[in-house]
Specification:
By secondary structure, the protein is of the alpha/beta class. The protein folds into 3 domains: about 15-55 and about 95-160 and about 280-355, FAD/NAD(P)-binding domain; about 170-280, FAD/NAD(P)-binding domain, CATH 3.50.50.60; about 365-470, Enolase-like, domain 1 (2-Layer Sandwich), CATH 3.30.390.30. It has 12 helices and 21 strands. It has a 5-stranded mixed beta barrel. It has a 5-stranded parallel sheet with strand order 7-14-8-9-10, with helices on one face. The protein has a 5-stranded antiparallel sheet with strand order 17-18-21-20-19, sandwiched between helices.
């Protein structure tokens, strides 16, 4: 087995300051950040660096969503006085462009690793005693690495439902979705979380008749109720059927092209394609050998403390392998925490309750901090402010007036609004607007402080500023 960039096979144990198992966002971030701090780093990855996010997740999903946005723009061009005729849809070109984006970013990550002299081993790594990592190469060769420090970043895989095993054609999961050979006429998306809603939004905009099936009482269960209602209204307007409180019980073959999804209640749904999107599970089986104190829970997560330390001194775990939000940017942050901790810099851990969330369905959703219900459940007296994009000048210019901004703040004893607890957005480009709200929530800023911020005019971000300003008791347009 040849490490990437090496000129000779590994014939004996190699020593590194840091050995990372897993080349997804958490793993390659740990490798890059550690190397930038002067550590000698080895990275073990059985597939391609970039992980699920780059190759089968975040990036291809957003590329398809952008394709869907182009279709929406083309259909509404007449509103701007531009007459277009949408004659055809070249799915092969869509898939080609998606792969071009992935390949460009993959080359970028690979180049960064090479530039920082990270030694990348193509194989599967497992941790044993004394920080020894055994690597079985994809070519069958073996290598033994030892790290002064070790980071476990083995990632996750799609959660499947018994009876709905993916076949790559009529039953897909969040990996195989991106290998569709064509846009189906109709689809059932099982799971109304962030990924399920993104898939449903994409398929609907590309011409599929879509039904979302969610076992919980509401879709987007982590979102504020006002935000979810906007998404539901938009989905209904676009013909996406949403059934909540409904579990699937089985699937049958109707003919060569159709599947019948059986439900716990209500009539079954006939569709061309079933997309199973019910979350992901950590990939930790086979990661540990005898002699290590690292603990894995019954649900497969590696146990860590607030700074991502495991029970084994000198070993950290980050990303989807631990029980924190399964978001690439959270994995990046955890990797930085782990490296800082091994360098003795006493970092603060990642506060999972305040991380930024971005959901790229149409309309987009973004939030940080507590929802109104969660704040009340936590014992806060709250003040809220809601302003809709329908009154925003830039939204009117864009023709994208769907959605709102909602601010949740702690109510002071005198009844005024104090510290910001949560910022929730749904509407045009809100995933690009959350930064100020995220900063305010994590800085524990007060309404009075944030109300002093200037927002450019005309801009979509004015709605955030207006929503906060109104909580001071005075406002302009709200």
């Amino acid at each position: 087995m040849l490490p990437v960039g090496s000129i000779a096979p590994v014939t004996e144990q190699q020593q590194f300051d840091l050995v990372v198992i897993g080349g997804g966002p958490g793993g390659y971030a740990a490798a890059l950040y550690g190397a930038s701090a002067g550590l000698s780093v080895a990275l073990v990855e059985k597939d391609k660096v970039g992980g699920t996010c780059l190759h089968r997740g975040c990036i291809p999903a957003k590329e398809l969503l952008e394709t869907a946005a182009v279709v929406r723009i083309a259909k509404s061009a007449g509103d701007f006085g531009i007459e277009l005729e949408l004659k055809s849809f070249n799915w092969a070109r869509v898939a080609e462009r998606k792969q071009q984006v992935i390949d460009t970013l993959f080359k970028g990550v690979s180049g960064l690793l090479k530039g920082r002299k990270v030694t990348v081993f193509a194989g599967t790594g497992s941790l044993g005693a004394d920080h020894v990592v055994e690597v079985v190469g994809n070519d069958g060769e073996q290598a033994t690495l030892k790290g002064t420090h070790v980071v476990l970043a083995s990632g996750s895989s799609p959660r499947n439902i018994p009876g709905f095993e993916p076949d790559g054609s009529r039953i897909l999961n969040s990996d195989s979705f991106f290998d569709m050979s064509a846009v189906p006429r109709s689809a059932v998306v099982i799971g109304g979380g962030a990924i399920g809603c993104e898939f449903a939004s994409t398929l609907s905009d590309l011409g599929s008749q879509v039904t979302i099936l969610e076992a919980l009482p509401k879709i987007l269960p982590g979102c504020d109720g006002d935000v979810t209602r906007v998404v539901l209204q938009s989905f209904k307007k676009r013909g996406i059927e949403v059934r909540t409180g409904t579990a699937v019980t089985g699937v049958q073959v109707a003919d060569d092209h159709s599947r019948v999804v059986q439900l716990s209640e209500g009539d079954p749904v006939v569709c061309d394609v079933v997309v199973v999107s019910v979350g992901r599970v950590p990939v930790t089986e086979g990661l540990l050998r005898e002699g290590t104190a690292v603990n894995i829970t019954d649900r497969g997560h590696i146990e860590v403390d607030d700074t991502c330390r495991t029970a084994e001194p000198g070993v950290w775990a980050v990303g989807d392998a631990i029980n924190t939000p399964q978001l690439a940017h959270v994995a990046f942050a955890e990797a930085i925490v782990a490296v800082k901790d091994m360098l003795g810099e006493s970092p603060a851990g990642v506060d999972a309750a305040k991380v930024p969330w971005a959901i790229y369905c149409h309309p987009e959703v973004a939030f940080a901090g507590l929802s109104e219900d969660a704040a009340k459940e936590a014992g806060y007296q709250v003040v809220t402010s809601k302003h809709r994009f329908a009154g925003n000048s830039r939204a009117q210019v864009l023709g994208e007036t769907e959605g709102l901004v909602k601010i949740i703040a702690e109510q002071r004893p005198d009844g005024t609004a104090g510290t910001l607890l949560g910022v929730h957005m749904v509407g045009p480009w809100v995933t690009e607007q959350l930064a100020a709200g995220y900063l305010a929530v994590n800085w524990e800023a007060t309404v009075d402080e944030v109300a002093e911020f200037l927002q450019p005019h005309p801009s979509l971000t004015e709605l955030f500023g207006e929503s906060v300003l109104s909580m001071t008791g005075r406002s302009l347009h709200g």
